[in-house]
């Protein structure tokens, strides 16, 4: 059983979407890291500028360091209005000149003499970004380095990081969607050769087993070559089957005919009554075997022809007349009234003449063997857009509850009376293949039991 899986288009699009999603995640991580570094750099410059301005404002007066905090330093820090500012100015002896005495830099600030130090820490249970800067005091009595510590909460940094990341996210999402849309169009266009190949196979006639001659991309060439190889093998098998059917028909019918001829040469007058009964049984069984073998071969022939023969317009009237002549034997009981009725004009259907003739022959033969009492009528009539081939007899007919069963192979309503159960099966398969049907009509006081084939006319098929 064929397993239905996701389409190649869906799988390609899903895989590309996964790659794009992974790339977008990497880009977003890089964007977040870049945004955070940019925000730190921007606000670190503000902290550094404020610290340097405070250091520049330190003066020595009367042997003491005076602190005159410049307003511009706090104006710089005021660019982040939601953040809190903590500062501490320290004398060379580490005493606090002004600011928060409990503000401590988390690492040794000895290196602040040559460079400005930055550190992320916590102060009073708040995350802060700190800067430490130093300035040499030239006064001999106060010789040393004055230091400035400034701490700022990080709300503004986080807001800037979020804003930059959001902008990058919007850009990445838009570009990813555009890339995915472009990928979908590209994949759809790239898979068009597959659709064209499938359409070529769908439109191809079922009897056409010649190799495919289509232009496909190089990647599809092995697939097309495999299809062509399979069709060549299938064509060889069908030819072998056709030869087998022909050989079987000859090899089986010949000995059966010879057996029947040999049995008919036996002198029944020299046999006893019991032997004559046995001889009659042999004749009946030989006749049944010959008929059953013929029906089996005809059934195989019908199936094979519909798989290998191109359907063409045929005249149902002509086919029915030939079937009537073939099915009604010359040795029929003279007390049986046999008739054939058909319109003078041809009634054309799309089909195979040999298969349709076998179907009509089987219906007539079934009526002669199991239905006819004194009359048999075969009629070809037109009813609307359909042509009907009716076979009517005056026998008891088939019960309505058995109609659905008797069209199946090896199912018969006359079990034990030499019926193979293939006649109606052959006729039904032929009618179904030709877009028609095999149906039954109950016996009435005015008409007998009727079996009919209903087939659409060619003009009706074209109009449909």
Overview of this structure, please?
- The protein has 464 residues and is an alpha+beta fold.
- The chain folds into three domains: 8-162, Beta-Lactamase; 203-309, Helix Hairpins (Orthogonal Bundle); 311-464, 2-Layer Sandwich (Heat Shock Protein 90), CATH 3.30.565.10.
- It is built from eleven helices and 14 strands.
- Strand 6 and strand 7 (144-153) form a beta hairpin.
- The two termini are 34 Å apart.
- Residues 460-464 have low confidence and may be disordered.
Please write out the topology:
Elements: H1 8-56, E1 58-61, E2 64-67, H2 71-77, E3 85-90, E4 96-99, E5 117-123, E6 126-137, E7 144-153, H3 155-190, H4 192-203, H5 221-264, H6 273-308, E8 312-315, H7 316-327, E9 337-341, E10 348-351, H8 353-370, E11 375-383, E12 386-393, H9 403-406, H10 423-433, E13 437-441, E14 449-456, H11 458-463
Parallel strand pairs: 9-11
Antiparallel strand pairs: 1-2, 3-4, 3-7, 5-6, 6-7, 8-10, 11-12, 12-14, 13-14
Helix pairs in contact: 1-2, 1-3, 5-6, 6-8, 6-10, 7-8, 8-10
């Amino acid at each position: 059983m064929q397993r239905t899986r996701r389409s190649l288009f869906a799988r390609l699009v899903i895989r590309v979407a996964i790659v794009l999603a992974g790339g977008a995640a990497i880009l977003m991580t890089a964007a977040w890291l870049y945004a955070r570094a940019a925000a730190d750099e921007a606000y670190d410059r503000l902290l550094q500028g404020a610290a340097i301005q405070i250091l520049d404002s330190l003066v020595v007066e009367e042997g003491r360091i005076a602190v005159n905090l410049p307003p511009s330093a706090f104006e710089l820090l005021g660019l982040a209005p939601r953040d809190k500012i903590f500062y501490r100015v320290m004398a060379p002896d580490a005493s606090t000149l002004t600011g928060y005495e409990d503000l401590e830099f988390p690492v040794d600030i000895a290196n602040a003499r040559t460079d400005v130090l930055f550190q992320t820490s916590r102060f009073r249970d708040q995350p802060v970004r700190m800067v430490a800067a130093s300035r040499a005091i030239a006064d001999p009595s106060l010789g040393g380095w004055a230091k400035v510590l400034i701490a700022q909460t990080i709300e503004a940094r986080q807001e800037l990081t979020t804003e930059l990341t959001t902008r990058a996210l919007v850009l990445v999402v838009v570009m990813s969607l555009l890339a995915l849309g472009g990928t979908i169009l590209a994949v759809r266009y790239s898979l068009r050769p597959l659709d064209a190949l499938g359409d070529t196979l769908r439109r191809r006639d079922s009897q056409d087993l010649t190799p495919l001659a289509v232009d496909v991309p190089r990647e599809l060439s092995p697939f097309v070559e495999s299809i062509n190889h399979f069709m060549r093998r299938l064509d060889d098998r069908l030819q072998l089957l056709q030869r087998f059917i022909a050989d079987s028909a000859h090899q089986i019918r010949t000995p059966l005919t010879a057996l029947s001829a040999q049995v008919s040469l036996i002198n029944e007058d020299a046999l006893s009554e019991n032997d004559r009964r046995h001889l009659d049984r042999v004749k009946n069984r030989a006749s049944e075997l010959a008929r059953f073998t013929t029906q089996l071969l005809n059934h195989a022939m019908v199936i094979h022809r519909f798989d290998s023969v191109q359907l063409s317009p045929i005249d149902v009237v002509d086919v029915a007349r030939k079937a009537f002549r073939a099915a009604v034997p010359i040795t029929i009981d003279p007390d049986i009234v046999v008739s054939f009725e058909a319109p003078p004009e041809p009634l054309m259907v799309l089909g195979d003449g040999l298969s349709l003739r076998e179907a009509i022959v089987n219906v007539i033969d079934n009526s002669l063997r199991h239905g006819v009492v004194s009359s048999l009528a075969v009629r070809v009539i037109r009813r609307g857009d359909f042509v009907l081939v009716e076979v009517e007899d005056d026998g008891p007919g088939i019960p309505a509850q058995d109609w659905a069963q008797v069209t199946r192979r090896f199912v018969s309503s006359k079990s034990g009376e030499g019926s193979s159960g293939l006649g109606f099966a052959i006729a039904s398969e032929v009618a179904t293949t030709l877009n028609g049907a095999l149906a039954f009509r109950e016996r009435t006081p005015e008409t007998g039991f009727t079996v009919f084939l209903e087939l659409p006319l060619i003009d009706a098929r074209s109009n449909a």
